[in-house]
Amino acid sequence: MSSQSLPSVQRLIGLARSNGIDVRPTLLRVIVDQFVAEASHPAAEVTRFGELVVNLLPKASEADRAVIAAKLALHRQTPAIVARRLAADVGAVARPVLTHCRALSDDDLFLAVRSGDPEKALAVAEREDIGLAALVALEDMDDPGVKAALAARVARPAAALREPLLASPADLGRRFLAAPTAHRETMLAELALSQPALPPGLGPRGPAHAGERGREIEVAALSRREGALAEALGRSLGLDRATAARIAGDPGGEPLVVIARALDLGREATTRILLFAHEAIGTSVERLTALAALYDAVPRGVAVTLVRSFQDAAPVQSPSRPSRHQTVLAPDASDRIGARQAASPAARQAPRSPAARPAATRQPKGS
Questions:
Q1: Does the pLDDT of residue 94 top 90, yes or no?
Q2: Secondary structure (DSSP) of 207-250
């Protein structure tokens, strides 16, 4: 929607004002066509486009909304606010957005499945990327169309999709923490498809029993003391300070859910931790519900794999090298000389200052 296209929009607005014609449905189609005609837009323009479309959608017919949804579903910069509005519409409008639009988060897909609309559930089942919570919700449905879509999904080769996750498992934790919230459930779902069964008794590394570590983490979260949760995560799981702080302060909450699932804390304890760990999560019933559903959906083997990767995510330090020299001191041990300075020829030839000599070796002046 470049500046060159604005005159046509202005003409439509002028026509509406002069003749009393409601051109809002036409205006909506025009600005959507102009938006999808360009592959990329500045951030401010995307925001302005989203605000316009959300205000104009209520005046459009269902047929117009369906056309608009089909056009915006494939555009990579479709605003999330518009995608959510279209996904909440009737099935015929929501379907292309639920199937193709990358602006929708895993929570949006989960809520669409839970809406009870079989057409929306089928649209989510046909996506290439499905979050774990939405995938489990789909598997609980008895709809034949959804079951057929899931069966076809399993039959599709997924090695190319999962290979980037499995290429360097030691780096899984870092990539999970760096991923946007909207992509984390997709990573969990991909790991679940490729993760072998967890051997009995295997869990996150640590000196204490999982229950004791879980209680320490919960008490720290409930205390609401600044830094307490990060300290408890660091102590109980052996995480480095930066990783522990990042997990404790993560606004999405998925890393805490993964840790709780790896320690097998249970849904109620996990909800209590999330309720007090981050204000943005604790004040959102919708977000708490989605994270609790995620706890139920994550296989414990996937959670343990990720937590062990968190434990391996400490900054790599170069191994200490044995010293090739002894510390150089003045004879009275009062003056430390740098190794490189002491090793230089100038340092070996230069006389020491009188203050650096032992008192017994000093010569009185004039002697």
A1: yes
A2: SS-HHHHHHHHHHHHHH--TTHHHHHHHHHH---HHHHHHHHT-
